[in-house]
Design a protein that fits this description.
Helix content is about 35%, strand content about 15%. By secondary structure, the chain is α/β, with parallel strands linked by helices. It has 2 domains: about 30 residues; about 170 residues, Glutaredoxin. The protein has a 6-stranded mixed β-sheet, with helices on both faces. Strand 4, helix 2 and strand 5 form a beta-alpha-beta unit.
Length: about 220
């Protein structure tokens, strides 16, 4: 290959790189790998640590990290919530960010117990909610909405079921599940934080809401 040919190849490669770099600066999001949509959050209604009813409408327009735990857990849960607190500290100033921590043991984890647990972590309910409700509804949400457990486990009697998972689900502003992360792995937690930042900049997909939730009165 002649020096002239090498020069032209190098020139056009450099030109392509500069062109691509320019597009990433001019067009927001150009060149970024978008997170796929894995699932959609189904309607729900649970009680938070303040005794307030929280529904799927309360998370619309917010980027959410979702987990399942129980307050008396001595195994993975303390480590999970230590890691979750790190995420909370990084994003708690953003009003479009929310953590949903669901109990897997509602028989024990009353509103009062969740309040005590939340306070021990310094969790502000504006950004970090601890949720309880019927075991059936909690477990159904974990499996059917957030993909944090195998839906086939719903076939067992609810009294015999127990979810114990270290995984976190990331939900976008349009109530779509975008990714699931291992809440005990440092590298996946770093990836989660990066993806939260990405989704906070991503606009709401208004076509997701057929009930015109985002329209103002009078329209």
């Amino acid at each position: 290959m002649s020096k002239k040919t090498i020069f032209y190849i190098s020139f056009f490669v450099a030109l392509f790189i500069l062109f691509y770099f320019g597009l990433t600066k001019i067009i927001p999001g150009y060149g970024e790998v978008k997170l796929p949509v894995l699932n959609y959050v189904q309607p729900f209604a649970f009680k938070d640590q303040e005794g307030k009813t929280i529904t799927d409408k309360d998370i619309a327009g917010k980027v959410c990290v979702v987990e399942y735990f129980f307050t008396t857990c001595k195994g993975i849960c303390p480590k999970m919530n230590t890691n979750m607190k790190g995420i909370y500290q990084d994003f708690k100033q953003d009003t479009d960010f929310l953590i949903l921590s669901h109990t897997v043991n509602p028989e024990t984890d009353s509103v009062a117990r969740l309040k005590h647990y939340a306070d021990s972590l310094g969790a502000d309910p504006k950004n970090w909610l601890f949720l309880t409700g019927s075991k059936q509804d909690l477990y159904n949400a974990a499996r059917v909405s957030y993909l944090l457990d195998d839906p086939k486990n719903n076939n067992d009697s609810i009294s015999n079921q127990f979810i114990h998972t270290q995984f976190f689900a990331l939900v976008d502003k349009s109530e779509r599940v975008r990714k699931v992360y291992d809440g005990l792995k440092k590298e996946e937690l770093a990836e989660l934080k990066k993806d939260i930042g990405y989704l906070l900049k991503e606009p709401v997909d208004k076509s997701r809401f057929a009930n015109k939730l985002y329209e103002t009165k009078g329209n």
